[in-house]
Design a protein that fits this description.
By secondary structure, the protein is mainly β. The protein is globular and about 80 Å long.
């Protein structure tokens, strides 16, 4: 990696981005596939009926949609070599696979795979094993959140809302979406570090996680215009690769369909002055061609957590998201090209300082108000996302080929007041005897964190089956480049005149994998399936520390880091499944996965009792699972599973021991990742859903629950409970619809979710996770395609701790009441 230099550009608020070397291009080979016979053409009347009779608007629509796509993809710095490679890959696949002439085309327009779309027999179809299957036939713990169910409860703009009703699912809320993360089945978390998540995060089949900031959570843009969400619980290392220790989540955006349709919604929340506008429009552009545009706008200038020193709310939001897609379906080829962007000011990190009386240095105790934090540093967080994706699906006759090419640039920033107190507030607290006169606090200490991560991935796989055999082979490449910096300020003194420092770091990650699966029906009811993946990973880091005043290197040799690591891994899954009845499946499986090691980029204060260690190694896991699932009842589905996981070299989050109450290091702690030793986790989970008739109306009830736990079994943390693992998780969701007149229906939805038990941190003195039960209520009326609803999120105004640490409390959001209008066409 190239060396850093002490340039003026480095110490600006938004440091110069350090570029890594260009990735190698994949060789592309053209190949033509022809249809076996020319299909018949539909009549003109059929085409007009299917396409919404938009012939008079077709040319205008084409120009408008293509202009929007081009505008999105040519924004600042976006059309680089990776973007060109993406579109080149897609174009070559489409050109190679499309029929040679107009006479070979199949203009019959088929609808896109919509949310949890039913197959020919009415069953839910998913791609959990990278090929289409009925949900009840997949021998693993899997759930589908479809667009209808999501809209019934008001949609989602964040991971916590999206996954609230899923068993074994824990959303670790750190008050800002760019530092929060998801855990499944007691998988470990990497809170406030630059580590990879323990859950695979996917958009339309492409891996989007990774990077120091914002890489362990979905973005608001990912929540826009969802088609369906597939949630896979348990080790998924063989087909999904790195970091799928607890499972994998694949958010599948609604694709263009071949009819004129769309929707729009407006929502307003009274308590926080939040205004949200969202919508999508779908336009056919001709035989087998369609476009879809989706948009999101949010304006929220108020919140619940207030910073009086700068007269702003920590949890304010403002920004927009936009997505454009074009779909081409001709003969055996079905291709979608997507471009999307987000510019968002998002809720920033915030917390209350809570130091009881009698604590050394704080004789009277210092406790801030739960909702007013006197920080001198203005709270700020933002996240910009640009994405390009090309998905090409080709029917080869005896097999199906899928190529997914993705490029995603994510730029995240946040500011943090390290001492969480302003000079005026500190003077008041000293005068009141709350803070000792000699307690070493610096109200000028703050951190400014900036990260830009480029993620480029290419996956290609082919699958097929015959009477008894199913097979899949694939290959994958992932290139990840991150430019990361932390600027830390302080108040200069005679003893130390430095105004602070900046620590820039550049990280490069390359991963190449080959994978496959083979399943065989031993009998009509008994199947055995094996899955295997070989992965080669390499990581590199180059990091420095510079003085903000002089621009010169500081900190000595320990702050000059140039290192790299490589890893090879072979992950597997072996599954035996048995059909007890046509719609009931029992299965047993064993599988392995691994979570890639890496580097801690944030270094400790020199006074830290337990300084950050730069390197941490891989985590390997082996999981055993038995399950029972099916749809024996009309409109019903159930699943039960139990699991046990053995983890070697568990990657866990700890901190360096600094705290406001630590006289030797009175600053905010720096969290980092370490290999904590071997561990085990276990659990049982169940889910049930049932649709039913209620007079002239209808309803749907969904229940889920899980019991999980885990302990470290060796090393420094031997005997401690795994952190951030609730003992119990449960949810219930009831949706009702009752017609009251022609084209008029009353609707209602109630979602109840809760957690109980568990430990906050991996320490002997850790506090318990806060127990809570949340209730979201929504009632409305539908007038044909128009609906008006009122909602109350957190109906009973339950405020609980979402996170706690020594001297710090983070609180949940109080109740929000609002209204929403929605129209579809």
């Amino acid at each position: 990696m190239p060396e850093f230099s002490a340039r003026t550009a480095i110490i600006t608020r938004r440091p110069t981005i350090f570029r890594s070397s260009r990735p190698r291009r994949l060789p592309l080979r053209r190949k033509r596939f022809a249809t076996s016979s020319p299909p018949s053409f539909p009549s003109a009347a059929d085409r007009r009926r299917r396409e919404g009779d938009v012939s008079g608007l077709t040319r205008v629509a084409i120009c408008t949609k293509l202009s929007i796509i081009i505008a999105i993809t040519t924004w600042e710095g976006f059309m680089g070599r990776k973007a060109q490679l993406l579109f080149g890959t897609a174009a070559l696949w489409v050109a190679a696979a499309a029929p040679a002439s107009a006479q070979d085309r199949a203009p019959e327009a088929l609808p896109a795979d919509t949310a949890a779309e039913a197959g020919d027999d009415g069953a839910i179809v998913v791609t959990a094993r990278r090929r289409e299957e009925r949900l009840s036939d997949v021998p693993t713990a899997a759930s589908v959140i479809d667009a209808t169910a999501l809209n019934d409860r008001g949609g989602a703009t964040g991971s916590g809302e999206l996954l609230a009703d899923q068993p074994s699912m824990r959303f670790n809320n750190l008050s800002s979406s760019i530092t929060s993360e998801i855990s499944i089945r007691a998988s470990s978390t990497a809170r406030a570090t630059n580590g990879d998540p323990s859950v695979g995060l996917y958009r339309n089949g492409a891996y989007i996680a990774g990077g120091p900031v914002g890489g362990r959570n979905f973005t608001r843009l990912d929540m826009l215009d969802i088609g369906r969400v597939e949630v896979l619980r348990g080790t998924q290392g063989a087909l999904y690769g790195r970091n799928a220790v607890g499972g994998a989540i694949n958010i599948i955006s609604a694709e263009p369909e071949f009819d004129l349709s769309g929707w729009a919604s407006v929502r307003y929340g009274f308590e926080n002055n939040s205004l949200q506008l969202q919508g999508a429009v779908n336009v056919p552009l001709g035989d087998g061609i369609a476009a879809r545009i989706s948009g999101d706008l949010v304006e929220q200038d108020k919140g619940f957590f207030y910073n009086p020193d700068n007269d702003v709310y920590f949890d304010r939001q403002k920004g927009h998201g936009l997505r454009g897609q074009i779909r081409l379906k001709r003969g055996p080829v079905d291709a979608v090209i997507m471009a999307e962007t987000q510019r968002l000011t998002t809720p920033s990190i915030h917390y209350q300082i809570f130091i009881p009386a009698g604590t050394p240095g704080f004789p009277g105790g210092y406790i801030q108000d739960r909702f007013r934090y006197p920080w001198s540093t203005a709270p700020r967080a933002s996240q910009d996302v640009d994405g390009l994706q090309a998905i090409v699906r080709v029917d080869l006759g005896g097999a199906d080929l899928t190529s997914t090419t993705s490029f995603r640039k994510r730029h995240s920033e946040y500011d943090l007041d390290n001492d969480a107190v302003s000079p005026a507030e500190l003077a008041r607290a000293r005068a009141a005897g709350e803070v000792g006169p000699l307690t070493p606090l610096d109200p000028g200490s703050a951190s400014y964190v900036v990260d830009t991560t480029d993620n480029f991935s290419q996956d290609i796989h082919v699958s097929g089956s015959n009477d008894r055999l199913t097979w899949l082979v694939g290959a994958e490449m992932l290139l990840l480049d991150s430019d990361f910096s932390v600027t830390t300020t302080r108040t200069p003194t005679l003893a130390n005149p430095s105004p602070g420092n900046i620590a820039p770091a550049r990280l490069h990650f390359e991963s190449y994998a080959a994978y496959g699966s083979l399943g065989f029906d031993l009998t009509d009811s008994l199947n055995i399936t094996g899955e295997l993946r070989y992965t080669h990973d390499s990581r590199g880091i180059s990091a420095r520390l510079y003085d903000l005043g002089t621009g010169l290197p500081t900190g000595g040799p320990s702050r000059i880091i140039d290192d790299s690591i490589t890893a090879d891994n072979l992950s597997y899954n072996a599954t035996l499944s048995y059909k007890l009845a046509p719609d009931i499946l029992a299965y047993a499986k064993v599988g392995s996965s691994y979570r890639a090691g890496g580097f801690n980029t944030r270094l400790s204060d020199p006074r830290a009792p337990s300084p950050v260690q730069v390197l941490f190694g891989n985590e390997n896991s082996t999981s055993y699972e038995v399950g029972f699932k099916g749809s024996p009842m009309r409109r019903g589905y159930f699943a039960v599973a139990g699991y046990y996981t053995q983890l070697d070299d568990l990657i866990a989050q700890v901190d360096d021991g600094c705290a406001l109450t630590n006289p030797t290091c009175p600053v905010a702690a720096v969290s980092y990742l370490t290999n904590a030793g071997d561990a085990k986790s276990w659990g049982v989970e169940a889910e049930y859903s049932q649709g039913f008739d209620l007079g002239q109306g209808s309803g749907r009830l969904a229940l889920s629950g899980s019991r999980q736990g885990g302990k470290v079994k060796s090393g420094r943390y031997d005997g401690l409970d795994l952190a951030q693992v609730p003992d119990w998780l449960a949810s219930a969701n009831l949706n009702l619809r009752a017609p009251v007149a022609k084209n008029v229906s009353l609707t209602g939805n109630i979602l109840v979710s809760g957690q109980w038990g568990g430990k906050q941190e991996l320490t002997a003195t850790s506090v318990d996770l806060d127990d809570y039960v949340l209730v979201n209520l929504r009632v409305g009326v539908e007038f044909g395609k128009v609906s008006i609803s009122a909602f109350a999120n957190n109906l009973f105004d339950k405020v609980y701790y979402v996170a706690q640490a020594p001297t710090i409390n983070r609180y949940s959001q109080p109740r929000v009441i609002g209204v929403e209008g929605r129209i579809s066409f």
